[in-house]
Design brief:
With 82 residues, the chain is an all-beta fold. It is built from no helices and seven strands. The protein has a four-stranded antiparallel β-sheet with strand order 4-5-6-7, with no helix packed on it. Strand 1 and strand 2 form a beta hairpin. The radius of gyration is 12 Å and the shape is globular. The two termini are 22 Å apart.
């Protein structure tokens, strides 16, 4: 997306995250946000569609399945779609 690699959410040192990072070279990373609007999650899907990034479903820190969809044009501001 925007000619960059993007990494978001997941689990780091046992903590489920909701951060978003981008890199234009895979070596240097810039944090777009540490607290995206969506619930911290792992095992979710992402895609790019209509010039936006999408976060779809996943599993929360309590192992509950999430049934929501979010989109962003910049990785910082996220809007819930479903």
């Amino acid at each position: 997306f925007e000619d960059k690699l993007w990494v978001m959410g997941g689990v780091v040192s046992g903590q489920v995250r909701r951060d978003v990072w981008s890199s234009s070279d895979g070596k240097n990373w810039i944090q777009a946000t540490a607290t995206a609007n969506w619930t911290a999650r792992h095992s979710f899907s992402t895609t790019v569609f209509n010039e936006q990034m999408w976060v779809i479903n996943g599993t929360s820190s309590s192992a509950s399945f999430l049934n929501d969809v979010w989109r962003s044009e910049n990785g910082l501001q996220w809007v819930q779609v479903l």
